[in-house]
Specification:
Layout (H helix, E strand, L loop, with lengths): L1 H22 L3 H9 L3 H27 L7 H16 L7 H11 L4 H33 L6 H26 L1 H17 L6 H23 L2 H30 L7 H15 L10 H10 L5 H36 L1
Length: 338
C-alpha cells in the first residue's frame, strides 16, 4: 500500500505539471474547444474505450477457459479494470501482471496455473501488438504520414524490435522445457555457491516440478489452437478500438470532416504506445503526452490539438484507473465480508 500511495503522489505531481504545461500557452483556445465539444460524439469515444476493454476481457477469458469452466466474464472484465489501475501507477506498467496472478490465486488457482494464464495471455497480446506494429510501420512507409518526427520514428523502430524480442523470449520460456530446466539448475547452483540456498538438490527438485507443471499447462494451451486464435483476434480488436478512439475525440471538437482519418489515428496511437514503453514514470506520463502532440500534431495544431490530448488522456488513462481503483477496493471489501 505504501508503494501505491508513493506512486500515486508522484503521478499526481507529474499530472499537475503536464496539465499546466499544456494549458500555459493556449488556455483560452483550449477551454473554448472543450466547451464546444460535441457530447454525443464524445460519448462515442467513451463507448469505444469501454467496448475495447470488453474485448480485452474476452481475450483474457479465452485463455482462462483453457484451464477452467468456472471463471465468469464478469470476473474477467473486473480483472482488466484492476490491471489498468496497477499498470497505471507503476513504472513501465509492471504492476498489472503480478496483481493478476495474486487475484487468480485468491480465486483458487494454483500459482503455476495462474502464472500460465498470465504468461499465455501476455504472449497472445504481444502477438497482436507486434502485428499492429508491422501494419503501422508499413502504412507510414507507404504514405509517410509523419514527416516531422524523424527522431521519434527511430525510437518507434527500436521499440517495435524490443516488443518482438519480448514476444520471442516469452515463447521460448513458455514452450522450451529443456531451456528452463537448464537455466533454473544453473541459477540454483550459483545461489548455492553464494550460500543463499542451503540444500541445492532439494531446491532443484522443487523447481523442476514447478517447471514441469508450467509446461504441462502450456502444452495444454498449445493443443487449443482455435482458442488461441480467438484470443489473438479479440486482442487485435481491442487494440483497433483503443487506437481509433482519438479519432472520435478529435471529431467531437472538429466534426468528422477533419484532417485526422481513422487510419491516421490508429497509426499515431500505435506509435504513441511504443514511445510510452521508454518512459519509467507511472503511466508513462510526459512521454505519452509528448508523443501525442508530435504525432497528432502532424494533422492538427493549437488549442484543438491540446484539448483533444486532455480528453483522450482522461478517457484512455485516468478514467480507467479511477474505475479500476474503485473495483479493486470493492473486491477487497467483498473478501473481508466473506
Amino acid at each position: 500500500m505504501k508503494g501505491i500511495k508513493k506512486n500515486s503522489i508522484i503521478l499526481l505531481i507529474v499530472t499537475i505539471l503536464i496539465v499546466g504545461f499544456v494549458l500555459k500557452d493556449d488556455f483560452n483556445a483550449i477551454v473554448d474547444a472543450l466547451l464546444k465539444a460535441n457530447l454525443l460524439v464524445l460519448f462515442l469515444a467513451f463507448l469505444c474505450q469501454i467496448v475495447a476493454l470488453m474485448f480485452e476481457a474476452l481475450a483474457y477469458k479465452k485463455v482462462v477457459d483453457s484451464y477452467t469452466d468456472d471463471y465468469s466474464y464478469k470476473s474477467a472484465l473486473k480483472m482488466q479494470f484492476i490491471t489498468k489501475f496497477f499498470n497505471g501507477i507503476t513504472p513501465f506498467s509492471t504492476g498489472g501482471q503480478p496483481m493478476q496472478i495474486y487475484l487468480l490465486k485468491k480465486d483458487g488457482f494454483r500459482l503455476t496455473k495462474a502464472t500460465n494464464i498470465i504468461m499465455q495471455n501476455f504472449i497472445l497480446y504481444q502477438a497482436a501488438l507486434v502485428t499492429y506494429g508491422i501494419i503501422a510501420l508499413l502504412v507510414n512507409w507507404k504514405w509517410n504520414l509523419f514527416k516531422e518526427v524523424t527522431l521519434l520514428k527511430n525510437l518507434i523502430l527500436l521499440g517495435f524490435l524490443m516488443n518482438t524480442l519480448v514476444m520471442l523470449g516469452l515463447i521460448i520460456i513458455s514452450f522450451s522445457s529443456k531451456f528452463n530446466h537448464v537455466m533454473i539448475d544453473k541459477a540454483i547452483a550459483v545461489l548455492a555457491k553464494l550460500k543463499i540456498v542451503k540444500d541445492k538438490e532439494k531446491k532443484q527438485a522443487e523447481w523442476s516440478e514447478k517447471v514441469d507443471d508450467f509446461h504441462q499447462g502450456t502444452t495444454y494451451l498449445k493443443q487449443h489452437k482455435k482458442l488461441c486464435l480467438q484470443s489473438y483476434f479479440y486482442n487485435f480488436v481491442y487494440l483497433t478500438l483503443n487506437y481509433v478512439m482519438p479519432y472520435f475525440v478529435i471529431a467531437s471538437l472538429l466534426g468528422f470532416d477533419n484532417p485526422v482519418t481513422p487510419i491516421g489515428a490508429i497509426c499515431s496511437s500505435a506509435y504513441i504506445l511504443i514511445i510510452g514503453s521508454f518512459v519509467p514514470i507511472p503511466g508513462a506520463s510526459g512521454g505519452i503526452e509528448y508523443g501525442y502532440l508530435r504525432f497528432f500534431g502532424s494533422f492538427i495544431k493549437g488549442g484543438i490539438l491540446k484539448a483533444s490530448l486532455l480528453i483522450w488522456r482522461f478517457i484512455s488513462y485516468y478514467f480507467l484507473m479511477i474505475v479500476g481503483a474503485v473495483i479493486f477496493n470493492l473486491k477487497g471489501s467483498e473478501k473481508k465480508c466473506e
